[in-house]
Amino acid sequence: MTSASMTAFAQRAEFRAAGTDLSERRRSGVSRGALIDLDAAPDTTGVTWGADGAATIGAFTTIASIGADARIAAAYPGVAAALGLATPQIRHLATLGGNLAQRSRCWYFRDPHIACLKKGGSDCPARSGNHLYSVAFDLGPCVAPHPSTMAAALLAYDAKIVTSQRQGLGIGELLGDGSNGTSDHALASGEVIRAVELPAPLEGERALYKRAISRSHAEWPLAEVCARAVVSGGAFQFIRLTAGGIAPVPLRLAAAEAALQGKPASAAAIAEAARQATSGANPLPMTGYKLDLLAGVVHDLLERLAI
Hints:
Layout: H1 3-12, E1 14-16, H2 22-28, E2 35-37, E3 47-49, E4 55-58, H3 63-67, H4 70-75, H5 77-81, H6 88-91, H7 96-100, H8 107-110, H9 125-128, H10 149-156, E5 160-163, H11 171-175, E6 193-198, E7 206-212, E8 223-232, E9 235-244, E10 251-252, H12 254-260, H13 267-276, H14 289-306
Parallel strand pairs: 1-2
Antiparallel strand pairs: 3-4, 4-6, 5-6, 7-8, 8-9, 9-10
Helix pairs in contact: 12-13, 13-14
Protein backbone atom coordinates (compact mmCIF):
# COMPACT_ATOMS: atom_id res chain seq x y z
CA MET A 1 0.00 0.00 0.00
CA THR A 2 1.42 3.39 -1.01
CA SER A 3 1.75 6.30 1.39
CA ALA A 4 -1.11 8.11 -0.36
CA SER A 5 -3.39 5.08 -0.20
CA MET A 6 -2.55 4.52 3.46
CA THR A 7 -3.49 8.13 4.19
CA ALA A 8 -6.77 7.75 2.32
CA PHE A 9 -7.51 4.53 4.21
CA ALA A 10 -6.86 6.24 7.56
CA GLN A 11 -9.16 9.11 6.64
CA ARG A 12 -12.04 6.73 5.85
CA ALA A 13 -11.46 4.35 8.77
CA GLU A 14 -12.78 4.51 12.31
CA PHE A 15 -10.63 3.90 15.37
CA ARG A 16 -11.55 1.10 17.76
CA ALA A 17 -10.39 0.79 21.35
CA ALA A 18 -12.85 -1.24 23.44
CA GLY A 19 -15.52 -0.72 20.79
CA THR A 20 -18.47 -0.62 23.19
CA ASP A 21 -20.26 1.97 21.06
CA LEU A 22 -18.66 1.22 17.70
CA SER A 23 -19.74 -2.42 17.84
CA GLU A 24 -23.36 -1.35 18.25
CA ARG A 25 -23.12 1.04 15.30
CA ARG A 26 -21.62 -1.64 13.10
CA ARG A 27 -24.31 -4.15 14.01
CA SER A 28 -26.99 -1.66 13.02
CA GLY A 29 -25.21 -0.67 9.80
CA VAL A 30 -24.63 2.97 10.78
CA SER A 31 -20.84 2.39 10.65
CA ARG A 32 -19.59 0.30 7.77
CA GLY A 33 -16.08 1.47 6.95
CA ALA A 34 -12.64 0.08 7.68
CA LEU A 35 -11.36 -0.19 11.24
CA ILE A 36 -8.04 0.69 12.82
CA ASP A 37 -7.50 -1.05 16.15
CA LEU A 38 -5.77 1.04 18.81
CA ASP A 39 -3.29 -0.62 21.15
CA ALA A 40 -2.81 0.76 24.64
CA ALA A 41 0.67 2.13 25.34
CA PRO A 42 2.11 2.43 28.86
CA ASP A 43 1.47 6.19 28.93
CA THR A 44 -2.18 5.79 27.91
CA THR A 45 -3.36 3.57 30.77
CA GLY A 46 -3.69 4.15 34.47
CA VAL A 47 -3.41 7.27 36.63
CA THR A 48 -0.22 9.18 37.39
CA TRP A 49 0.06 11.86 40.06
CA GLY A 50 2.10 15.03 40.16
CA ALA A 51 3.83 16.37 43.24
CA ASP A 52 1.10 19.00 43.55
CA GLY A 53 -1.65 16.36 43.66
CA ALA A 54 -2.73 16.77 40.03
CA ALA A 55 -3.76 13.60 38.18
CA THR A 56 -3.21 12.50 34.60
CA ILE A 57 -5.51 9.71 33.43
CA GLY A 58 -4.58 7.68 30.37
CA ALA A 59 -7.20 7.58 27.63
CA PHE A 60 -7.21 3.76 27.62
CA THR A 61 -8.02 3.59 31.31
CA THR A 62 -11.38 1.91 31.76
CA ILE A 63 -14.32 3.70 33.34
CA ALA A 64 -14.55 0.92 35.96
CA SER A 65 -10.92 1.30 37.07
CA ILE A 66 -11.30 5.07 37.38
CA GLY A 67 -14.40 4.55 39.48
CA ALA A 68 -12.57 2.07 41.72
CA ASP A 69 -9.60 4.39 42.33
CA ALA A 70 -9.89 5.66 45.92
CA ARG A 71 -7.45 8.50 45.32
CA ILE A 72 -9.48 9.77 42.35
CA ALA A 73 -12.61 9.60 44.48
CA ALA A 74 -10.94 11.66 47.22
CA ALA A 75 -9.36 14.28 44.94
CA TYR A 76 -12.02 14.52 42.21
CA PRO A 77 -15.34 13.31 43.64
CA GLY A 78 -17.27 14.97 40.81
CA VAL A 79 -15.45 12.75 38.32
CA ALA A 80 -15.75 9.62 40.43
CA ALA A 81 -19.48 10.10 40.98
CA ALA A 82 -20.06 10.44 37.24
CA LEU A 83 -18.86 6.88 36.82
CA GLY A 84 -22.31 5.49 37.51
CA LEU A 85 -22.87 5.68 33.76
CA ALA A 86 -23.82 2.63 31.70
CA THR A 87 -23.81 -0.93 33.08
CA PRO A 88 -20.99 -2.69 34.98
CA GLN A 89 -20.25 -4.82 31.91
CA ILE A 90 -19.75 -1.74 29.74
CA ARG A 91 -17.78 0.16 32.39
CA HIS A 92 -15.27 -2.71 32.59
CA LEU A 93 -14.56 -2.35 28.86
CA ALA A 94 -15.28 1.27 27.97
CA THR A 95 -12.35 3.67 28.06
CA LEU A 96 -12.10 7.30 29.11
CA GLY A 97 -11.01 8.37 25.63
CA GLY A 98 -13.83 6.40 24.04
CA ASN A 99 -16.39 8.03 26.29
CA LEU A 100 -15.17 11.49 25.28
CA ALA A 101 -15.12 10.66 21.57
CA GLN A 102 -18.31 8.59 21.33
CA ARG A 103 -20.97 9.31 18.76
CA SER A 104 -24.47 10.75 19.12
CA ARG A 105 -27.21 8.70 20.78
CA CYS A 106 -29.95 10.35 18.69
CA TRP A 107 -32.29 7.71 17.26
CA TYR A 108 -32.27 9.41 13.86
CA PHE A 109 -28.47 9.15 13.74
CA ARG A 110 -28.67 5.54 14.93
CA ASP A 111 -31.12 4.57 12.18
CA PRO A 112 -29.08 3.45 9.13
CA HIS A 113 -31.98 4.31 6.81
CA ILE A 114 -32.26 7.99 7.82
CA ALA A 115 -29.90 10.70 6.63
CA CYS A 116 -28.89 13.39 9.12
CA LEU A 117 -26.22 16.05 9.39
CA LYS A 118 -23.80 13.69 11.12
CA LYS A 119 -24.15 11.19 8.28
CA GLY A 120 -23.80 13.65 5.40
CA GLY A 121 -27.46 14.66 5.22
CA SER A 122 -28.71 18.17 4.61
CA ASP A 123 -30.69 18.71 7.81
CA CYS A 124 -31.51 17.46 11.30
CA PRO A 125 -34.64 15.28 11.15
CA ALA A 126 -35.04 15.43 14.94
CA ARG A 127 -35.70 19.17 14.78
CA SER A 128 -39.00 18.65 12.96
CA GLY A 129 -39.55 15.10 14.24
CA ASN A 130 -39.59 13.42 17.63
CA HIS A 131 -37.08 15.35 19.73
CA LEU A 132 -38.34 14.43 23.21
CA TYR A 133 -34.79 13.66 24.42
CA SER A 134 -33.07 16.44 22.50
CA VAL A 135 -31.54 19.72 23.62
CA ALA A 136 -33.02 22.47 25.77
CA PHE A 137 -30.20 24.85 24.77
CA ASP A 138 -30.47 24.99 20.99
CA LEU A 139 -26.96 26.04 19.90
CA GLY A 140 -26.71 24.78 16.34
CA PRO A 141 -28.24 22.85 13.48
CA CYS A 142 -28.09 19.47 15.27
CA VAL A 143 -30.35 19.12 18.33
CA ALA A 144 -28.88 15.92 19.78
CA PRO A 145 -27.34 16.29 23.27
CA HIS A 146 -23.71 15.35 23.52
CA PRO A 147 -23.53 11.81 24.95
CA SER A 148 -20.38 12.05 27.12
CA THR A 149 -21.00 12.18 30.85
CA MET A 150 -17.26 12.27 31.46
CA ALA A 151 -16.99 15.43 29.35
CA ALA A 152 -19.56 17.21 31.51
CA ALA A 153 -17.71 16.22 34.69
CA LEU A 154 -14.24 17.02 33.33
CA LEU A 155 -15.45 20.45 32.19
CA ALA A 156 -16.13 21.27 35.83
CA TYR A 157 -12.48 20.56 36.62
CA ASP A 158 -11.00 22.52 33.70
CA ALA A 159 -9.43 19.31 32.46
CA LYS A 160 -6.99 19.41 29.55
CA ILE A 161 -6.87 16.82 26.78
CA VAL A 162 -3.69 15.41 25.29
CA THR A 163 -4.03 13.90 21.82
CA SER A 164 -1.63 12.31 19.37
CA GLN A 165 -1.30 15.73 17.70
CA ARG A 166 -2.02 18.39 20.33
CA GLN A 167 -1.73 19.19 24.02
CA GLY A 168 -3.67 21.33 26.45
CA LEU A 169 -7.06 21.15 24.76
CA GLY A 170 -10.01 22.22 26.88
CA ILE A 171 -13.25 20.28 26.69
CA GLY A 172 -14.67 23.10 24.57
CA GLU A 173 -11.80 22.81 22.11
CA LEU A 174 -12.20 19.04 21.94
CA LEU A 175 -15.96 19.05 21.42
CA GLY A 176 -16.57 22.45 19.82
CA ASP A 177 -19.27 24.95 20.70
CA GLY A 178 -22.27 23.14 19.23
CA SER A 179 -22.38 25.20 16.05
CA ASN A 180 -21.05 22.36 13.86
CA GLY A 181 -23.86 19.85 13.48
CA THR A 182 -21.83 17.43 11.38
CA SER A 183 -19.52 16.07 14.07
CA ASP A 184 -19.51 15.03 17.73
CA HIS A 185 -15.98 16.31 18.35
CA ALA A 186 -13.24 18.45 16.82
CA LEU A 187 -10.58 15.75 16.46
CA ALA A 188 -8.75 15.89 13.16
CA SER A 189 -8.50 12.92 10.83
CA GLY A 190 -6.13 10.41 12.41
CA GLU A 191 -6.03 12.22 15.76
CA VAL A 192 -6.68 10.16 18.90
CA ILE A 193 -7.03 11.06 22.57
CA ARG A 194 -4.09 9.90 24.69
CA ALA A 195 -4.66 11.35 28.16
CA VAL A 196 -6.68 13.72 30.33
CA GLU A 197 -4.86 16.11 32.67
CA LEU A 198 -6.67 17.33 35.79
CA PRO A 199 -5.44 20.29 37.85
CA ALA A 200 -4.75 19.85 41.54
CA PRO A 201 -7.94 20.14 43.60
CA LEU A 202 -8.56 23.36 45.53
CA GLU A 203 -8.05 23.40 49.26
CA GLY A 204 -11.31 22.70 51.02
CA GLU A 205 -13.32 22.00 47.88
CA ARG A 206 -16.20 19.57 47.69
CA ALA A 207 -17.89 18.21 44.59
CA LEU A 208 -21.03 16.28 43.70
CA TYR A 209 -22.60 14.86 40.56
CA LYS A 210 -26.23 14.01 39.87
CA ARG A 211 -28.28 13.01 36.85
CA ALA A 212 -31.99 12.97 36.14
CA ILE A 213 -32.97 9.88 34.18
CA SER A 214 -36.14 8.22 32.98
CA ARG A 215 -35.47 4.86 34.68
CA SER A 216 -33.46 3.82 37.72
CA HIS A 217 -30.41 2.21 36.07
CA ALA A 218 -28.29 2.28 32.93
CA GLU A 219 -30.07 5.17 31.27
CA TRP A 220 -28.77 8.21 29.38
CA PRO A 221 -29.26 11.40 31.39
CA LEU A 222 -32.04 13.81 30.56
CA ALA A 223 -30.02 16.38 32.49
CA GLU A 224 -26.85 15.96 34.53
CA VAL A 225 -24.83 18.37 36.64
CA CYS A 226 -21.37 18.37 38.21
CA ALA A 227 -20.94 20.93 40.99
CA ARG A 228 -17.72 21.99 42.72
CA ALA A 229 -17.64 24.43 45.60
CA VAL A 230 -15.50 25.88 48.34
CA VAL A 231 -17.75 27.11 51.13
CA SER A 232 -15.94 29.08 53.82
CA GLY A 233 -17.16 31.59 56.32
CA GLY A 234 -20.71 30.73 55.37
CA ALA A 235 -20.24 31.87 51.76
CA PHE A 236 -19.42 30.36 48.37
CA GLN A 237 -15.78 31.30 47.85
CA PHE A 238 -15.57 29.18 44.69
CA ILE A 239 -18.31 27.65 42.58
CA ARG A 240 -18.30 25.69 39.34
CA LEU A 241 -21.42 24.22 37.74
CA THR A 242 -21.41 22.25 34.51
CA ALA A 243 -24.24 20.37 32.82
CA GLY A 244 -24.75 17.69 30.21
CA GLY A 245 -27.74 16.16 28.45
CA ILE A 246 -29.16 19.59 27.64
CA ALA A 247 -27.08 20.90 24.72
CA PRO A 248 -24.97 19.69 21.78
CA VAL A 249 -21.94 20.12 24.07
CA PRO A 250 -21.51 20.18 27.86
CA LEU A 251 -22.18 23.64 29.27
CA ARG A 252 -20.89 25.76 32.10
CA LEU A 253 -23.81 27.33 33.93
CA ALA A 254 -22.13 30.72 34.16
CA ALA A 255 -25.18 32.70 35.25
CA ALA A 256 -25.81 30.31 38.13
CA GLU A 257 -22.15 30.52 39.14
CA ALA A 258 -22.30 34.31 39.12
CA ALA A 259 -25.38 34.25 41.33
CA LEU A 260 -23.42 32.36 44.01
CA GLN A 261 -19.81 33.54 43.80
CA GLY A 262 -18.99 35.30 47.07
CA LYS A 263 -22.59 35.06 48.22
CA PRO A 264 -23.85 33.54 51.49
CA ALA A 265 -24.67 29.84 51.31
CA SER A 266 -28.30 30.67 52.02
CA ALA A 267 -31.56 29.16 50.82
CA ALA A 268 -32.35 32.37 48.92
CA ALA A 269 -29.01 32.42 47.09
CA ILE A 270 -29.30 28.75 46.20
CA ALA A 271 -32.85 29.22 44.89
CA GLU A 272 -31.70 32.13 42.73
CA ALA A 273 -28.77 30.13 41.35
CA ALA A 274 -31.14 27.29 40.45
CA ARG A 275 -33.34 29.76 38.57
CA GLN A 276 -30.30 31.18 36.77
CA ALA A 277 -29.20 27.68 35.72
CA THR A 278 -31.64 27.85 32.81
CA SER A 279 -30.49 31.31 31.68
CA GLY A 280 -30.03 31.40 27.91
CA ALA A 281 -32.08 28.28 27.28
CA ASN A 282 -34.20 28.04 24.15
CA PRO A 283 -35.87 24.64 24.35
CA LEU A 284 -37.53 22.85 21.49
CA PRO A 285 -41.32 22.29 21.62
CA MET A 286 -40.87 18.94 23.38
CA THR A 287 -37.86 19.65 25.63
CA GLY A 288 -39.01 22.38 28.00
CA TYR A 289 -39.31 19.78 30.78
CA LYS A 290 -35.51 19.51 30.82
CA LEU A 291 -35.26 23.01 32.25
CA ASP A 292 -37.27 21.99 35.30
CA LEU A 293 -35.03 18.96 35.71
CA LEU A 294 -31.89 21.06 35.35
CA ALA A 295 -33.00 23.62 37.91
CA GLY A 296 -34.03 20.89 40.32
CA VAL A 297 -30.73 19.02 40.06
CA VAL A 298 -28.72 22.24 40.56
CA HIS A 299 -30.82 23.16 43.59
CA ASP A 300 -30.35 19.73 45.16
CA LEU A 301 -26.58 19.69 44.67
CA LEU A 302 -26.11 23.21 46.00
CA GLU A 303 -28.16 22.46 49.11
CA ARG A 304 -25.95 19.46 49.80
CA LEU A 305 -22.73 21.38 49.17
CA ALA A 306 -23.79 24.26 51.42
CA ILE A 307 -24.21 22.03 54.49
